[in-house]
Design goal:
P-loop_NTPase; microtubule binding; Dynamin_N; Dynamin; globular; alpha/beta
């Protein structure tokens, strides 16, 4: 498998690997704190899709009728003796090939949906992956927060289990929302704030985490909704408002032309993930060029695209920002 590596600043990664060697020498590997991150957001915000684009192989299930039903921890383990570009599944133990993982998780989620009263459980399901290209990292994918007037019992169950992670100071937070969603309608962002800062936790004894935003980034998915806008003035205003509303925020569109992971072979999906950064760059740059051309030709005084915003857009930008959370924990 090619291009599965997670690229971390080489100096920082070297320092971390040296620390791991020392810990191993003194049998203290279990005491070496592994950076932990939780990915949160409303249902269908793209959490699972982001995780597999970060891990760089299709490890999550993609069925439209099956949701994440429990917290899933993807524990990445650095194994320098493995061949570069190869991934070994350690857990679940009955999975021998990474290509089998997404199908296995789908079965697990369907079983939880059938057997649990609310359709969800707080019990953690662990996936452990080894690679020479990984840094030690744990990424927890939790069920999507349920907005609206749906099943209250299910909504409460999900919010209880999400609190366990977002209120825990050991976890950095990646919040996903759709790019077209205004702050006033961003139920997921509002609930995360409340779960972190309420004086008393719903199910945990953690104190309020008032500084949670210092340990969180917001990823705005489905950026293609913004790319339908042909007016540079409107685009600049939308991005500026998003930055003001959500602080450290970045934009990504992980699917183009209606591509479906579920409808394609594993190998094809691996190639899609590997090629996504270049595809996205080409599409975004073409869109920006069209905005700038319209600004030059328009009698409506359209602005050109603010070039400062370009560095906020793209799956590689998002990966780098998640990696910065890794560095922040390790330093």
């Amino acid at each position: 498998m090619e291009q599965t590596g997670i690229l971390i600043d080489p100096a920082a990664f070297q320092a971390y690997t040296e620390l791991r060697k020392i810990a191993a020498e003194y049998n203290m590997e279990d005491e070496l704190e592994v950076p932990q991150l939780v990915v949160v957001g409303e249902t269908s915000a793209g959490k699972s899709m982001l995780i597999q684009n970060f891990i760089r192989f299709p490890c999550t299930f993609g069925a439209v009728d099956v949701a994440t039903r429990c917290p899933v921890a993807y524990r990445l383990v650095h194994k320098p003796n493995l061949e570069r570009g190869k991934i070994r599944v350690v857990q679940p133990k009955n999975i021998n090939n990474p290509a089998e993982l997404s199908g296995h998780l789908k079965v697990v989620m369907e079983q939880i949906q059938r057997e649990e009263r609310t359709g969800f459980t707080s019990k953690l399901y662990q996936v452990e992956l080894e690679s020479a290209d990984y840094t030690d990292f744990e990424i927890v994918d939790v069920p999507g927060l349920i907005a609206g007037s749906g099943d209250k019992a299910a909504r409460d169950t999900v919010e209880d289990l999400v609190e366990v992670y977002v209120r825990n100071p050991r976890f950095s937070i990646v919040l996903l929302k759709e790019a077209s969603q205004l702050k006033v309608n961003a139920y997921g962002a509002l609930r995360i704030r409340e779960l972190c800062t309420l004086p008393k936790g719903r199910v945990t004894t953690f104190p309020p985490r008032h500084d949670y935003e210092e340990h969180m980034i917001t990823i705005q998915t489905k950026f293609d909704t913004i790319m339908k806008t042909k007016n540079g003035t409107a685009v600049n205003g939308l991005i500026q408002q998003s930055c003001e509303d959500f602080g450290k925020t970045y934009f990504v569109n992980m699917i183009f032309d209606g591509y479906s992971m579920e409808d394609n072979l594993y190998k094809t999906n691996v190639e899609y993930i590997a090629n996504l950064p270049q595809l996205e760059k080409e599409r975004v740059d073409e869109w920006i060029n069209n905005l700038n051309a319209a600004a030059t030709q328009s009698s409506g005084n359209f602005q050109k695209f603010n070039s400062d915003y370009r560095e906020l857009i793209g799956i590689d930008v998002v990966r780098q920002q998640i990696q910065q959370l890794w560095l922040k924990v390790c330093n």
